[in-house]
């Protein structure tokens, strides 16, 4: 049985579907601080099966122990965490407590229950401002904000855990920019308030929830001056987790893997692709650069193929079409009636 912490969230809910399709049994554990049970209700509709769900906090040992008491958990996919960069600068202690203390408690409970397999959601943010692209897993690591530091620290904690006991099987997945939604249009990204990330902002502008997109900087050293990123379809990302679990027993040392497509698209490339997929206009204005942004960030994804046999399949067109289906069918996210 796989324990999926944060399984009601954006990436977690899509991963539940992929786990089901690959024949894994799993239980979801989430405190719903950034999600709602509606996402899981919709996943149940898609897969035609009830999902065991525990509402609890990873910082609470008893909450977690009760799951281990009920099920024989042999591995964990650990999505649970807070992820808003700006917010992490304002309330760093809360981020350190939630993400780092939460992971420590999770690891303690795993250890007490002799569960030694974990897949962790890390991020391309651990590469800081990369000196060159594409980014390989052995590039220097740094963080420019508390959110990024929680990812770096957790990676280190998990490496220490492996040093203490080589029976651990640990996979650190460094995601690039997850976008898109499940084909059904039933689940997708549902950010609270004004979206910080590009794709939800574009799709909310296309449904006229926002008046225009602010393009943060057009003077970067990129093909059109706007920032370049490696957007990856969330369903491809979900499949990366299935591959990680399937390859877990072969893992030696801590396996660290980039999950990206290897292709970089600019902000204006994404606006154009979205307009084409949706048939809607996305009005935009050029605005000043956003503090902390880098010009270019995209993966070298070859190691993921080598060690996990995983490679992203879906292109930007499909990412935009699927985001649009989700956004247009659910203009108010999970509060929308279906
Ligand atoms: P999300 O906010 O949609 O999902 C995270 C889930 O964790 C939410 O359902 C939330 O309620 C839950 N959670 C948070 N703190 C918890 C706690 N203390 N106890 C129990 N549950 C808790 O985010 P997501 O986009 O699905 O991201 C999943 C993971 O991937 C996060 O760790 C995030 O940092 C990481 N990540 C995300 C991105 C991205 O762009 N979405 C990029 C790189 C890495
Ligand atoms: C952000 C986070 C990063 C996190 C990643 C994936 C910051 C500084 N970094 O990175 O830590 O790992 O998301 O979740 O928040 N853009 C606009 N207008 C907008 C929004 C974004 O022009 O309204 C531009 C940005 O300047 C960037 C690109 O779009 O060039 C992508 O932005 P975003 O989706 O926020 O992702 P990242 O910047 O890669």
Question: Your description of this structure?
Answer:
This protein has 338 residues and is α/β, with parallel strands linked by helices. The protein has a domain at 2-179 and 231-260 and 300-305: NAD(P)-binding Rossmann-like Domain (Rossmann fold, 3-Layer(aba) Sandwich). Helices cover 40% and strands 17% of the residues. It has 11 helices and 14 strands. It has helices at residues 10-21, 37-47, 61-70, 85-90, 92-112, 146-164, 198-206, 234-247, 267-278, 302-308, 316-329; strands at 2-5, 26-30, 53-55, 75-78, 117-123, 169-175, 177-179, 213-216, 228-229, 231-233, 254-259, 265-266, 284-287, 296-297. The strands form 4 sheets. A 7-stranded parallel beta sheet has the order 3-2-1-4-5-6-11, with helices on both faces. A 3-stranded mixed beta sheet has the order 12-9-14. The chain has a two-stranded parallel ribbon with strand order 7-10. α6 (146-164) links the parallel β5 and β6 (169-175). 47% of the residues are buried. The mean pLDDT is 97. The structure holds nicotinamide-adenine-dinucleotide (NAD) and uridine-diphosphate-N-acetylglucosamine (UD1).
